[in-house]
Amino acid sequence: MQDHIDREYEGIIASVTSFGVFVRLKELHIEGLVHITGLGNDYFNYDQGRHVLVGERTRQVFKLGDELDVRVRSVDLDGRQIDFELADLPRGSSRDRLAGKSRKPQAKNTRPTGKGSSDKDRKEPSKPRRSGSIRERLKRGDVP
């Protein structure tokens, strides 16, 4: 897999966790992690019952079965781990995003379909607002 670094692939979210999403590549049938800090310039709340990550500010949703275009970021053969980043972000932007310098990524198929579905139906429990970038909140110890 090391020869696939920086290549882009289509994938499907196979698992959602509090620390990110695991994406299974359609073409190669392998899984890797898109860390929560690589999902966009937002604070994401994990809803274990619905298996979703929801952005506090943008309300962007990452859920099981969503299709994402990802780029292979790193491969650790000893640890048997593969890290991905969203393909619609510039290369190496994960660090830039912590400083608020990247554009907003888009997940495919994030809107519910069917009769009566609307943004009003998808209210999440309110949580206190946290101010500052992720980097600032990490320094303060304000990240759960």
- DSSP E strands, number: 8
Structure annotation, total helices: 2
Quaternary organisation of the protein chains: single chain
Poorly predicted segments: 90-105
Give the key terms.
144 residues, mainly beta, OB fold (Dihydrolipoamide Acetyltransferase, E2P), five-stranded mixed barrel, three-stranded antiparallel sheet, 8 strands
List the helices and strands and how they pair.
Blueprint: E1 8-17, E2 20-25, E3 31-35, E4 44-47, E5 52-55, E6 61-63, E7 67-76, E8 81-86, H1 93-98, H2 134-140
Domain S1 motif: 6-87
Biased composition (Basic and acidic residues): 117-144
Protein name: S1 RNA-binding domain-containing protein
What does this structure look like?
This is S1 RNA-binding domain-containing protein. Pfam families: S1. InterPro entries: NA-bd_OB-fold, Ribos_protein_bS1-like, S1_domain. The structure is a single chain. The protein is mainly beta and 144 residues long. The chain has one domain: Nucleic acid-binding proteins (OB fold (Dihydrolipoamide Acetyltransferase, E2P), Beta Barrel). Helices cover 9% and strands 33% of the residues. The strands form two sheets. Strands 1-2-3-8-7 form a five-stranded mixed β-barrel. It has a three-stranded antiparallel β-sheet with strand order 4-5-6, with no helix packed on it. The longest helix is centred in the last third of the chain and has 7 residues.
In short:
By secondary structure, the chain is mostly beta strands.
